[in-house]
User: Fold this.
Amino acid sequence: MTDSIMSKAATMEIPINSNGDTGTLPEDDSLEQQVMVSGPNLNETSIVSGGYGGTAEGIIATSSIKDLRMKARRSSVPSSSSSICHITSQSHDHKGSNMHHSSSSSSMTAEETTRGVAVEKLETMRKWGLNTYKCTKQMISERFGRGSRTVDLELEAQIEVLRDTKRKYESVLRLARALTNHFYNMVQTQHALGDTFADLSQKSPELRDEFGYNAETQKLLCKNGETLLGAINFFVSSINTLVNKTMEDTLMTIKMYENARLEFDAYRSDLEELSMGPRDAVTMARIDAAQQQYQVHKEKYERLRSDVTIKLKFLEENKVKVMHKQLLLFHNAISAYFAGNQQQLEQTLKQFNIKLRPPGADKPSWLEEQ
Assistant:
């Protein structure tokens, strides 16, 4: 009986789980009861691992069976903690991967933005080059008489009149400035001459009266000359504004109109050339695109033509109004000065609201120099 129990105990196997640890099996209560009944003491009982009649290579105490079971139970606790650590490390790895993904996505967005800007610039350059080529081709064709151009005879005549008027007004402005410079030098000479006569009248008793009369005359002429200079300077300033600002602004609009006319004729000629060619699918697509461009430049040309017409009308009205006032001022001031009518000269300046600068006004004060 004892041999059969020991042989059963010797053939017991300790199960191993998939992790290499001893697995937890249901306890064999029947076998344990048999051992407790048959054997004198479990703690002193030995199990021979050799099997039936085998040589005893190792002896295992039966008390170690319970120890192995207890160790197997305890080993299940660290495995759960290791799984928790494993989950935590996976969460950290997941966060790191998210950060890496966000940084890579932001860099890709910046790269796409830069690429979009570069593509837009290239497209702009392509359109500019194509437009320049068409306009240059049209300009050369018109110059050599091979191309047709759109002409508004009435508007072209008004533009030519404006350019001729501007040239003549520039000549008036140049001459008026020269008159101002010469007259200023004459006034300064009269002022110096009057001071010299006054000094000689003090040092030459025998010619005191004669030098004194001439000194007073030169001082009066100098005063009237300064008044006339104020009127001429106002005249020059008004003509300068009319020529270099008002007329120049209108001429800039005319220049834009002429460029629009050239572009319109260039795209019109391109559309006419395509319309005369074959009518396959590719050509029809090109004709549609050319028709759209032609319509865009036609609207631009007509809009600028209307702007030029309006500006020419307003410029003519403004020119007549300004020149009427300035020519009247110039005539009255010159006539009063050379007639020696000081009162009329001063009245002319008051009529046109011209304020003379006091002597030495051009020189800055000592506070402004600091």
